[in-house]
Write a structure and sequence with these properties.
The protein has helices spanning 17-29, 37-43, 49-63, 66-76, 80-93, 110-120, 127-131, 137-147, 154-161, 169-182, 191-211, 218-245. It has 248 residues and is mainly alpha-helical. The protein starts with 16 loop residues before the first helix and ends with a helix. Bound molecules: fe (ii) ion (FE2). The site of fe (ii) ion (FE2) has 4 residues, from loops.
Length: 248
């Protein structure tokens, strides 16, 4: 098989690993999951606190396990250097921040910050109540898809968690945060989204650096693209379900 460097792309252009990832990232931003009517309703201020609560309860079921998805990718990635940004990301999921000389902190784990958001829309965040949340079917399938990262090949999984997840967060959470603020939530109550809008630029950059070494062949590029698009398709289904469940 020809390596990408040897193979001319459309218009005679040769796509390097960097060019491929840049193109893939742009295609992720253009995916229907990032341009969904559910997100646009957040942006337009059409999502009230009751609908935000449905979003919050369901999205917590996904978000609370984010470190498990990262750990799954760590477990299947054979390259030491590619695992490094994932491990730094894990430390930050637990409230650590090397740049600010801050160690892990149980009050500042990302699930803990998410619970602050949940309380602002009237959710009791005792362990018992949280464990009793009944997610909609689309949420259950979405969470299972991410937990099943451990059964994927690492290249597909990098596409899923890098361009297909971390990279899209700033755009996606901006819609959600603005909708929450229009519904009356304070800056402190939407901190989960603000923190990720900033942090995930860095996380996406780390994952990009991690996957560049194996984004050199056409075969691997196809796997990376498949992983990203497949997980974004699942996200479209999640938004479809939440839009329906919220009566929007
Ligand atoms: Fe996070």
């Amino acid at each position: 098989m020809l390596s990408v460097a040897e193979k001319p792309m459309g218009g005679g252009k040769i796509m390097t690993a960097e060019e491929f990832v840049d193109q893939l990232q742009q295609d992720c931003l253009d995916h229907p999951a990032l341009n969904h009517s559910y997100l646009k309703k957040f942006e337009a201020g059409k999502v009230d606190k009751k609908a935000i609560r449905i979003f919050g309860e369901n999205y917590y079921c996904f978000s609370r396990y984010f470190s498990r998805y990262l750990a799954a990718l760590v477990a299947i990635t054979p390259f030491e250097a590619s695992r490094a940004p994932l491990i730094k990301n894990l430390h930050e999921e637990y409230g650590g921040r090397q740049e600010e000389n801050r160690d892990m902190d149980p009050e500042l784990t990302h699930p803990a910050i998410f619970r602050r958001f949940l309380r602002s829309v009237g959710v009791d965040t005792s362990q018992e109540t949280l464990d009793a949340i009944k997610p909609i079917p689309e949420t259950k399938l979405f969470v299972d898809k991410y937990l099943n990262i451990r059964f994927l090949d690492y290249i597909t999984a990098f596409g899923a968690l890098g361009p297909g997840t971390e990279y899209i967060v700033p755009k996606m959470y901006t819609y959600i945060r603005e909708g929450c603020k229009k519904a009356g939530l304070s800056d402190d109550e939407v901190l989960f989204f603000t923190a990720h809008i900033e942090l995930d630029v860095e996380h996406a950059e780390g994952l990009k650096e991690g996957l560049i070494p194996f984004a050199q062949t056409e075969e691997n590029q196809e796997k990376l693209r498949f992983g990203a698009m497949d997980f974004l398709d699942a996200r479209t289904v999640l938004w479809d379900g939440l839009e329906r469940a919220s009566g929007l």
